[in-house]
């Protein structure tokens, strides 16, 4: 579950992942994963989008309890049936038009850190530096319904982000582990989406188009130049290889965004 304090919007995601890992050394492993997810998110003016999809990933990790740590991963996601309701004002009342399209995203990240044991406690703190890149594409679509349906062209967005922060992990009991982190993030480069469209009522390809409503364009939101983000959570071991987790996160990126995650994991 996630929320945005500026627009009063929220969203939910239900997902599951299956993965295979191979140990190369006691603290080093590689792995691949495949997952499915259903995403529903609110948009401004009462709009929303629903995006069932699949995610594929791979990683390499070197993560000893203390000392040098390294993590690299790549992820690709496909959303073949994204449905969207664009909300807008029609006079003083809210209205909406619906469309369907497909979308995809791909990203990669690399992180280096150094885990330090905290004297007198079953805990470690890990300062880290992380570089990540993500690119997303949404296909074009034609809306229907509402007073002002439109034809929307395909668009792309991309971002490269640097993070510097620290993670904390501590063992409270044999079954309970707590974790958290705080990081400063810097937007190194953002390619904000250029969204172009025309109102269907303008008859832009006809003999007498309303040109004022043809080829309209707008630049999507850019990331903040820098922001602070944090997370905290708890892991409870239900049985050997089986655990339940709950965590919360927040970030001051453009506006305050926040999320809550509840999960279950099982190792075979």
Walk me through this protein's architecture.
The chain is built from no helices and 16 strands. The chain has strands at residues 2-4, 9-25, 28-42, 48-62, 67-90, 93-117, 123-138, 141-142, 150-152, 155-171, 176-191, 194-199, 216-219, 226-239, 242-251, 257-266. It has a twelve-stranded antiparallel barrel. The protein has 268 residues and is mainly β. It is elongated and about 75 Å long.
The overall strand count is: 16
Radius of gyration, rounded?
22 Å
Largest sheet, strands/sense/barrel:
12 strands, antiparallel, barrel
What ranges have pLDDT less than 50 throughout 5 or more consecutive residues? none
Proportion of residues in helical segments? under 10%
Distance between the termini: 28 Å
**What structural class do helix, strand and pairing data support?**
mainly beta
Arithmetic mean pLDDT: 92
Total number of helical segments?
A: 0
- How much of the residues is beta strand, in percent? over 45%
């Amino acid at each position: 579950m996630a929320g945005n304090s500026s627009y009063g919007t929220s969203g939910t995601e239900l997902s599951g992942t299956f993965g295979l890992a191979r140990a190369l050394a006691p603290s080093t492993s590689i792995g691949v994963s495949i997952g499915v997810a259903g995403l529903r998110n609110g948009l401004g003016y009462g709009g929303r989008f629903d995006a069932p999809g699949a995610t594929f990933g791979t990683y390499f990790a070197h993560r000893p309890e203390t000392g040098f740590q390294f993590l690299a991963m790549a992820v690709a996601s496909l959303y073949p049936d994204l449905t969207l309701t664009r909300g807008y004002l029609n006079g003083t009342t809210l209205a909406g038009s619906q469309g369907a399209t497909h979308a995809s995203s791909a990203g990669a990240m690399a992180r280096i850190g150094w885990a330090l044991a905290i004297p007198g406690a079953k805990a470690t703190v890990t300062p880290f530096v992380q570089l990540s890149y993500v690119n997303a594409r949404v296909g074009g679509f034609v809306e229907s319904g509402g007073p002002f349906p439109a034809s929307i062209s395909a668009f792309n967005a991309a971002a490269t982000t640097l993070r510097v922060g620290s993670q904390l992990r501590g063992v409270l009991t044999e079954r309970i582990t707590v974790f958290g982190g705080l990081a400063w993030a810097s937007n190194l480069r953002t390619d904000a989406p250029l969204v172009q469209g025309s109102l269907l009522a303008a008859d832009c390809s006809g003999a007498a188009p309303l040109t004022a409503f043809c080829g309209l364009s707008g630049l999507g939101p850019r990331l903040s130049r820098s922001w602070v983000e944090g997370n905290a959570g708890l892991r409870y071991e239900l049985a050997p290889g089986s655990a339940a987790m709950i965590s919360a996160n927040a970030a001051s990126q453009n506006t305050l965004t926040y999320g809550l995650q509840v999960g279950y994991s099982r190792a075979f």
